[in-house]
Amino acid sequence: MQRNFDAIVVGAGFGGIYMCKKLIDQGLSVKVIEAASDVGGTCTGSHLYRYSWDLEDLRQYPWGRTYVRQAEVLAYLQHVVERHRLRQYMQFDTEVISADWDARCNLWVVRTDTGQKLEAKYLVTAVGLLSRQNFPKYPGIDRFKGELYHTGSWPKAHDFKGKRVGVLGNGSTGVQVITALADEVEQLLCFQRTPQYVVPAGDVVATPEYRKEINDSYEDIWKQAKNSQFAFGFEESKNPAMSVGSEERERIFEEAWQQGNGFRFMFGTFCDISYDEEANKEAANFIKKKIRATVRDPVKASKLIPTDYYARRPLCDTGYYEKFNRDHVDIVDIKETPITHFTEKGIRTSDGTEHELDVVICATGFEAVDGNYTRIPIRGRKGETLKRRWAEGPSSYLGVSVPDYPNLFMILGPKGPFTNLPPSIETQVEFISGLISHTNNLAPALVNGTRRAVVEATAEAEEEWSDVCDKLSANSLFRKSDSWIFGANVPGKRPTVLFYFGGLRNYRTVLDGVIKAGYKGFLGC
């Protein structure tokens, strides 16, 4: 069995698959290691949640609705892997348990839970933004006799029909789970800490006419996406909310509501909703009116109406609020009556109520961005793990590289762009593969009889990039909300700036400038 590679890629989602293809196309030997049993991914708008670089496949591959679900994403990624014969480079059901830089040989030494010891010149992490589960630690949770799941490890087969189901959390995943399960269960209780602003997804059947229009315009669609701020396929507004009268503002909000997509509603209507309090209030009040008009029970409606800024990840749904019109769907406000502990039969809240349940689903999110890096001991030049280095908050240069961690490249690492993921992933994969190609063409020093070039970010570049990210988010209302976007969803974790908020267009411009300047900010280039 081969144990030495040019590159080891950790993760076989959107990033790992494309990284594998790019490096194989460069003639490098590659091993992709994935903990799951197959390739993976999540969900969003159909025509952009795929790869842009295979135009023929974009036009031919079938999709039936405008909003693609997780099962369809998985099927698509499996299709891509088979189409480009990439499975032969992938090893599944294998978890990386450590990665150490060997300065004597200029190699990464990677160990797995299957007992393998592998070596590679380059280590690329494609572990995803949202993959380390944030599992609740309520007293007695182990005593619960029913079914207990986290949405991050959803069972392949389940049957909740006729069961009493409790859902902890109502973020993006919680909203989707509640919407999907409401029609099949006997009782559904949403244990809600923070009410959310939720906009329709605009999910409709993709007619042949619509699909033809997309196919005929795919090149322009991708060009527009990669040159926009959030890469969701719409033009972001340049107009402030208060630059128009109240009637026109209402019309614009209503049009966006009917079209669907949370990002479109927040950023396609007006340019200042995320940072101007008056504009934010206008958007928030519009959504609150929609909630009151949709939810017939005034008690349920009052629990569902948010009280803070409209400044979390923009959510969308396929009938979320409507589900609460059903008698068997209700809300437990756990700010008003917190969960005290689990029992054998269910969940007890501070008012003494024992909510008897057959199933508890934890839609409690993930330790975003840096969570998996703190789980896997990755030791760099000084023998320090990334977890220890990032004890006061994660940092990087461009969301890609960290000083003292030579030849380590991250896809969607901390302080990468906050945008639709596939276009961001493609941007970073192409930058990393170009940097690897550039490094391989250098004239490296002789190390133990082998020539191996080494490249890493400088401390100055990391510091300057961190300062850029901090300044870009300083005036954002997102920063004033307890959101996973700043790590505030994890108990005990210090909130910090996890993203670059300059948009994909500006990020790509920055990368182009780095390349043209001979990979400015990197040692060894």
Automatic annotation (TrEMBL):
Name the species this protein comes from.
Answer: Coniosporium apollinis (strain CBS 100218)
The cross-references to PANTHER family, in alphabetical order and at most eight, read: DUAL-FUNCTIONAL MONOOXYGENASE_METHYLTRANSFERASE PSOF, L-ORNITHINE N(5)-MONOOXYGENASE-RELATED
- Molecular function GO labels: flavin adenine dinucleotide binding; N,N-dimethylaniline monooxygenase activity; NADP binding
**Organism lineage:** Eukaryota, Fungi, Dikarya, Ascomycota, Pezizomycotina
Gene3D superfamilies in the cross-refs: FAD/NAD(P)-binding domain
Q: Which keywords belong to this entry?
A: FAD, Flavoprotein, NADP, Oxidoreductase
Please indicate if the UniProt record lists Oxidoreductase as a keyword: yes
Q: What is this protein called?
A: Cyclohexanone monooxygenase
Q: Output the SUPFAM superfamilies linked to this UniProt entry.
A: FAD/NAD(P)-binding domain
